[in-house]
Specification:
This protein has 3 helices and 7 strands. It has 147 residues and is of the alpha+beta class. It is globular and about 45 Å long.
Length: 147
């Protein structure tokens, strides 16, 4: 099994508010640095995204990928790669844990395997940068949203 990278951050908002931002793919280009376009291709019976096409630009890595999403209650979402130009696999998740009155701990786990050869240490460093940027962007987006 491939090694994963994970990190956590505390956000001053309820889990439902955090998940609302995570589930709003149309707004990803507004708060994630790497996502330039997001298009929901398929939704489940509850209206949540099941397949999403993302156009990514992370400097050296530019990619057009489709991810499949699985929603577990209101506190967890995970995704796997359906297709990509640059990646062999991509598995990730956000896990939201209530952390006291009006705060949520968000843990982001990510495992990426690229089609081009890359040292494991460099790959994990790239995963860490992606995770940290995403968590910082998510925190800023959620905490700056009108209440």
């Amino acid at each position: 099994m491939a090694e994963h990278t994970s990190s956590s951050i505390t956000i001053e908002a309820a889990p439902a508010d955090v998940m609302g931002v995570i589930a709003d793919f149309d707004r990803y280009p507004d708060w994630t640095g790497e996502v330039k376009e997001a298009e929901v291709l398929k939704t489940d019976e509850q209206g949540r995204a099941e397949q999403v096409r993302l156009v990514m630009d992370a400097g050296a890595i530019k990619d057009d990928q489709t991810l499949a999403y699985t929603w577990t209650g209101g506190h967890e979402v995970s995704w796997t790669l359906v297709k990509s130009q640059m990646l062999r696999s991509l598995d990730g998740s956000y896990i939201l844990t209530p952390a006291g009155t009006g705060t949520t701990e968000v843990t982001y786990r990510l495992t990426v395997d690229v089609k081009i050869p890359m040292l494991g240490m460099i790959k994990r460093k790239a995963e860490k940068v992606i995770i940290d940027r995403a968590l910082a962007g998510l925190k800023k987006r959620v905490e700056s949203a009108p209440k």
